Amino acid sequence: MTDEARHVVHFHRKHYDAIIAGRKVTTVRWGESVRVGAATFAFDEHPTAQPIAGQVVAVRQYRLDELTAEQAHEPPGTDMTLFAAQLRENYYPDMPGDAVVDVAELSLVEPYR
Fold first, then answer.
1. Contact criterion met (CB below 8 Å) for 16 and 43
2. Which 3 state secondary structure label does DSSP give 5?
3. Per the confidence metrics, is the pTM higher than 0.70?
């Protein structure tokens, strides 16, 4: 598949190791266009990480104020009020409490490490 056919999903550099190791298999997004299909995972401001061929396997939508740990693929017992606050603090300062967010399931095209 050509690079033009892939859409780019950007991540903070801190997520590189978790994605490569298969520990981070979802991302929660607001106001971004994440769609099912071939993707390139790019790690913004990472000093050495090259973009990675990946796949967005599924995208499901949930209201942020109703999002459960299970739906977000977070560990049981995750404080989802804190999770939402951290999304606002780190990525989406204008996101309202009743925002509809996308939970995208991810996979790598080839195994790494």
1. yes
2. helix
3. yes
